[in-house]
Write a structure and sequence with these properties.
The protein has about 450 residues and is mainly α. Helices cover about 50% and strands about 0% of the residues. A two-stranded antiparallel sheet has the order 1-2. Helix 3 packs antiparallel against helix 4 (about 150-165), helix 4 (about 150-165) runs antiparallel to helix 5 and helix 10 (about 300-310) runs antiparallel to helix 11 (about 315-325).
Length: about 450
């Protein structure tokens, strides 16, 4: 087992974040994301089938707008992000042996290009814990210049994102504090001068040097690290004000303005999620209903409101809203309403009606898993087991599926440990897709 950089700070076993032991009906990490049960996206995407060449361009273009707005000769010393004591040591002792891979260390003659190529390969395959380790190794090596802000920010963002994706959110939250105050003047510079007509005058605002994805991620993680959830809400509102200011710039092109509008819409949903994490569901409901809706996302917003109403327990209001949702996403809500009311026999019938409908907006794997959960609650253990095992044979292995199947094994067999071990080995033999975290802990399989 490889160790983290030699001067890294060790994390005690008790302080390491463990994967949550969620029940079949518990919410996914994003309470408003319909797809989060089935897939998990990589921070930097690619094609896992093509392992030939990795160009590493994505690490320098994390934020295309920042690349255009910032001066080309920008010099900022980010050596405070390259210190060894910023990064915790990582371990894979909690990962089953069949899924365990050795951490990759830098060779003595390693170049930055080859190291980034290796990192991109790990991301494309879904080895998020290994990628997080390699990010920390590169950042604390001599390969990175303290003034190479684009590479440093991209690697730091990838490190935090991979820690989250591998279930180490607490570690990511602690490491995010090394950014300190992202709203300080250190992170702002004057934008490049643009030639304009004498009649075209507009205020020149300082530009933030950190990429937008890192700023978004750091707000949530720092609110966790500092134990102040209101800090996260305030940070999102500050970014919202910045996005509104950018949208109103008269010199902004239509493409850039559309990007900022998308960012503003995304911030609204993130604010709702932050309120949900705080436990303030009533405020989250009001905020979600007040979001400006376009024709394209009207149905999606309604679906999110229904899910939030079910979380609050207002089933009557959720049912009333479902009447106005007529597309395939609305069809997914009918069995969920049955489950919320404890009518699992009716839910079984509803889920069966949705299986195999060949609708692009539906995820057959998620539907089949929910069907299996309802079968479990109606006492049909053997059928639930067959349904979940068929998904595994079809190379579906998202975390909630593995956890639910492990639960079924515990309920229907005295040899559950052997069955769960066999499940781990079956998942380890599945082809790499890049959509699922391969470095999964024992808790995902209830081992």
């Amino acid at each position: 087992m490889e160790a983290a950089p030699k001067h890294s700070r060790n994390v005690s076993r008790s302080s390491r974040p463990r994967s949550s032991t969620k029940g079949p009906l518990d919410q996914p990490d994003d309470p408003l994301d319909l797809d989060s049960l089935s897939k998990i996206s990589t921070p930097l995407t690619g094609n896992p089938a093509n392992h030939g060449t990795y160009m590493c361009a994505c690490f320098s273009t994390l934020d295309t707008l920042a690349s255009e707005e910032l001066p080309t000769n920008l010099q900022k010393d980010l050596s405070f992000l390259l210190r060894y004591d910023n990064y915790h040591s990582l371990s894979h002792v909690d990962i089953p042996h069949a899924l365990r891979s050795e951490f990759i260390s830098l060779k003595s003659d390693e170049t930055l290009t080859s190291a980034l190529g290796t990192l991109e390969k790990l991301l494309v395959e879904g080895h998020f814990l290994m990628a997080a380790y390699l990010c920390g190794t590169i950042l604390t090596s001599s390969l990175i210049s303290p003034t190479d802000i684009r590479q440093i920010f991209a690697l730091f963002y990838t490190r935090l994102a991979c820690l989250e994706l591998s279930g180490n959110t607490v570690i990511a939250a602690q490491e995010s504090k090394s950014l300190e105050d992202l709203s300080s003047t250190f992170y702002y510079v004057d934008g490049p001068e643009k030639a304009t007509d004498a009649h075209d005058s507009y205020p020149s605002y300082p530009r933030h040097i950190a990429p937008w994805p890192l700023r978004i991620l750091a707000i949530r993680l720092q609110s966790i690290g500092f134990g102040d959830s209101r800090r996260g809400i305030g940070g999102l509102y500050e970014l919202g004000l910045e996005a509104r200011r950018e949208i109103m710039r008269p010199d902004l092109g239509s493409a850039e303005r559309e990007i900022w509008r998308g960012r503003l819409s995304d911030l609204g949903v993130r604010t709702v999620n932050a309120l949900i994490e705080m436990g303030d569901l009533s405020s989250a409901k009001r905020s979600l209903e007040s979001l400006r809706r376009t024709r394209s996302d009207h149905v999606l917003t309604d679906v999110r409101v229904v899910l939030l109403l079910l979380s609050i327990g207002d089933v009557d209001a959720a049912r009333q809203l479902c009447v106005d949702i007529g597309d395939s996403k609305g069809a997914l809500l009918k069995p969920l309403l049955c489950m919320a009311e404890g009518r699992y026999d009716d839910a079984v019938l509803e889920w069966r009606n949705l299986v195999g409908r060949n609708d692009k907006a539906m995820d057959d794997a998620t539907i089949s898993q929910n069907l299996a959960v309802c079968l479990l609650y109606t006492g049909q253990l053997n059928e639930a087991r067959r349904a979940l095992e068929s998904l595994v044979k079809a190379h579906q292995s998202f975390p909630s599926l593995a956890f639910n199947l492990a639960t079924v094994y515990e309920l229907c067999s005295d040899k559950s440990v052997q069955l769960k071990t066999g499940l781990v080995e079956a998942i380890a033999e599945q082809p790499v897709t890049g959509y699922t975290n391969l470095d999964r802990p024992n808790a995902d399989f209830k081992l």
